[in-house]
Amino acid sequence: MPIIKAEELDSWKGKEVGVSDWFEASQDRINKFADCTEDHQFIHVDEEKAKNTPFGGTIAHGLLTLSLMPAMSYGCTLGLEGAVMGINYGYDKVRFLNPVRAGSKVRARHVLVDAVEKQPGRWLMTYDVTVEIDGIETPALIARSLAMIVVG
Fold this sequence. Notes:
- The chain is of the alpha+beta class.
- The protein has helices spanning about 10, 25-35, 40-45, 45-50, 60-65, 70-75, and strands at about 5, 15-20, 25, 80, 85-95, 105-120, 120-135, 135-150.
């Protein structure tokens, strides 16, 4: 992750900042997410029944893929010199474009859209994030990610 001065932020706008490592959407991870969220729809957890769907097997919850985004941002977004913490501020325009089949791998690409100092020492960073599926052209999801960086 590049650590930069706030004065350098404008030069990063519109540029890809980083690409995460691959994360596997294993059936075990999907099952644990189903338990955590109490969303046990068969398309996620019943491998036999899911074989008879257009997907040919189980798929990850869209929200599971979205929930991996904080992990997929570590080391892939800009760090500000003097930052004491970053806070997940939310997501805009989340769209699930392609299901993630169990056993697939996903990763995220981050492009800085904007950086605004909302209060002294509090920078709202906006990224366009594309979550790719290994070997598949259409991404799993796209979202606008918001993070508040606190500089101390």
